[in-house]
Prior knowledge:
Layout lengths: L10 H16 L12 E6 L2 E7 L8 H7 L11 E6 L11 H8 L3 E6 L9 H8 L3 E4 L3 H6 L2 H9 L3 E9 L17 H11 L4 E5 H7 L14 E6 L9 H4 L6 E5 L3 H10 L4 E6 L1 H9 L5 E7 L23 E9 L2 E8 L2
Parallel strand pairs: 3-4, 4-5, 6-10, 6-11, 7-8, 7-10, 8-9
Antiparallel strand pairs: 1-2, 1-3, 11-13, 12-13
Amino acid sequence: MGANGKPTGNKADDEAFMRLAIREAKRGIGRTSPNPVVGAVIVKNGRVLAKGWHRKAGMPHAEIEAIRALRNPSDAKGATIYVTLEPCCTHARTPPCTDAIIAAGFARVVFGATDPNPAHAGRAISVLKKARIATTHGILAAECTALNAAFNHWITKGLPLVIAKAGLSLDGRLARPPSEGQWLTAEASRRDAMRLRAKVDAILIGAGTLRTDNPRLTLRGVRGRQPLRVVVTRSGRLPKDAHLFTDEHRERTIVYRGKTLRTVLRDLAKRGCTSVLIEGGGETLGAAFDAGLVNRVVFYLAPLLCGGPKVIGGKGAASSVSAPRIANPQFRRIGPDVVIEGDIAN
Length: 346
C-alpha cells in the first residue's frame, strides 16, 4: 500500500497479472473487428477476483465483463484492474469504461498499451487521476500493442493491415501444373493457413485466381467468423457459377471492378475491415508490393523445385537495395515445409 492507502504494486506482480490479461485478450482474436482485442483482470490483495475479455463490437468491453464477473460488485472497491489497452473515456457504441471503473470504486488501474488514436491517447490517465485513482501504464506495452497490430494500423493510417500469403516451391512457383494436383504445401501448412484466415477481416484475390482455381476462401477445420471475400477485376467478366457467388457465404463476397488496390483497401477500411489477407495470384501480389501496400508476409515454402516462370508479377524492385525487406523474419517448421513471416520494414 502507498502512503495514501492505495495499492501500488511492484513490477514483477504487475507483469504477471498483465500476462493474465493478455491471455484473456487473445480469446477475442478474429472476433472483435473493427474494435481491438482487450483483456482485463481484477486483483485484490494479490488474488485474482475476476477476468474478462471483449467478445464482439457492440458488446461490453473487457473491463465491464470483468466487473460483471465479480461475485460481489463491492469487491471492486480498493482493488486493482489490469487492462491490456488504455480504458476508453469517450461514448461510442458503449459508455466510457473510465466511468464504470470510477463508479466501481477501484483504487488502481494498470494498463499496457496506450490508445493508438491520437485524439484519445493518454486521456484516460487524466480522467482517472482526477478521480483520485492511481494509474500505472506501459506494463508489457510491446506485447499489449502487438495484440492489435491491425487495429492500430487501421486507426492511424485509414487502411487495413495487408498480409501477403502464399504457398511456394523453392524456386518461387505458386502452384503445380494442373495435371500434377493443386497443392504444393503439406496438409499441416494448409491447416495453419486456415488459422491465419480466421484472424483477418477479408481475403482478397484477383479475377485470374477466381477463374483458374474457383476457390471457396472459407474457414475449414477452424472456428471463427467467415471473412469477407474480395475479388478485384478489370473487365468484370467473372464466372457466375463460382463458389464465391453461389455458396452459403455469397452475401460476404464483394467485387471491385476497375479500381486500384489502394482504392479497394480504403473502401474496405470504411467498411470496418482492419486486416486483409491477399492470397493471390501472382499479378495481384505483385501489384500490392509495387504499390507499397503490403505490411506483412506469410510465405509457406515447400521443399520442391517446380521450374517455370516467376509467379509474383508486377514491375518489381529497381534494385536489391530498394527491395522490400522483412524486419526480424521468423522461421517455423511445419512438417516438411518452412514458414517465413514478418513485417515489411518501413
